[in-house]
Structure formats: structure tokens, C-alpha cells
Amino acid sequence: MNLKHIKAIAFDLDGTLVDSIADLAASANAMREAMNLAPLPAERVASYVGDGVGSLVHRTLTDSMDQHSDEATWTQGFNLFIRHYHEHLTVRTRMYPGVSDALGLLRSLELPLVVITNKSQFLAMPLLQQLDIDTAFSLILGGDSLPEKKPSALPLLHAAAVLNVKPQEMLLVGDSENDIACARKAGAVAVAVSYGYRDATTLQADLIVGSLVDLFALLKQSHDPHVHRRD
Ligand SMILES: O=C(O)COP(=O)(O)O
Ligand SMILES: [Mg+2]
Predict the structure, then answer these.
(1) Ligand 2 centroid to 117 CA: how many Å?
(2) What positions does UniProt annotate as the active site of this protein (predicted)?
(3) What is the helix (H) or strand (E) element at residue 144, kind and residue range?
(4) Same CATH fold, 21-87 and 8-19+93-223?
């Protein structure tokens, strides 16, 4: 795939830049324990991540994808979850292999990098700071930064406007349906990582990469004036 026209890259956070499941599961289970509920396996919590913390609390309280807990229960759960998670953002959360290298390499191509996550801004910012990668990004948009979050195209359209590039000149790398739908609706290139919280082969991305270093290699090839390509 020719990526020559790409001028900026947006990254999803959970399941793409970082593996945050152990800490999210620990906080969900701390919440459940305080509410006299049995713990959930981490893989189950992983399947509930992707639509923001409010939805994660509903799902981990009801142990289902689409049921809602009543308002009082949800408020209690939300407060317990947030209090615990905010204090334990990076106990076991780590960048995936190649992420740190790839961010440096991509910046050497002078491509602005942004984060578009459905995680709340007040959780995403300290998480990125604690892993020491916040300064790699020109813009960090959380799920509550704008009136709409992914799968809406709005965060990507907003990022493109801030960076003064066309949405079609952006590439969004993610691990879920929400990421691919956001990219599609905005007219951006949709790239899926093969190692995230969902099965990438079901996502209908334009491209699947096994590591962000592989993505860098593809972009370098398309952006290097000395490489002559046939496509
Ligand atoms: O729902 C979340 O908090 C995770 O969101 P993300 O995968 O968009 O980073
Ligand atoms: Mg994700």
C-alpha cells in the first residue's frame, strides 16, 4: 500500500500503544470486591475495554457487554474504579514491544504524532507521562475531550484541523472496531495492530501490522525520495 500521502499519524492508546489490561482488571476487581462481587478474569475485562471508562464500569459491574447497572450502583462503582485506577495507572501497564523505538523513528520522518483514545483525558495524560512518552505527541485527545468520541470521526477531524492537514492525509492505528470506524468515516487510512484487545483479522482495516516498527518501515519506504517504487 502506498502511504506517500500520509502527513500525520494518530494512535489509539489501550491495546495499541500500551497493554493496560492488568491494571484495568485490578481496578475493576477492586471495585467489584468493594461491592461484594466475585473477581473477573483479565481476558473478560479486556473484552469490555474500548468505549471509555463509563462503559467499562457498566460492563464490569454487570459482566456483560450491553447491560447497564442502575444509576446509584454505577455511580458507586465509577467512583471506586476511578479512585483505584488513577492511583494504579502504570503498576503493570507497559508499552508494547517496538512502540518506544517506533515513536522515535516516526518522529525522524517529521510526521506529527497524536493520540486519540476513548480513555478519559485525566487518565490518559498521567498514564502517558508516567511511561515518559507524552512529549512524543503534538496532541492527546481523550474520550471526553470533545463532544463525541470514537467511533465518531470527530476526534480525527479535529486532530487534522489542529495539525492543518487533510483527514485523508492521516493514518489512524488502532486495535478495535471503534478505531477503524473513526478512520473510515473521516476518510483516513485505517491500520490495525495484530496484538491488541480484538482479533485484527475481523476489523477490515486497510493494513494490519505486527508492530509499530513495521509501520515505520512502510512509511519510510513511501517517504524516502531515493526509493523508487512501482505502485
Ligand atoms: O475505552 C478505553 O478506555 C480505552 O480506549 P482506547 O482503546 O480508545 O485507548
Ligand atoms: Mg484500543
Answers:
(1) 7
(2) 12
(3) none
(4) no
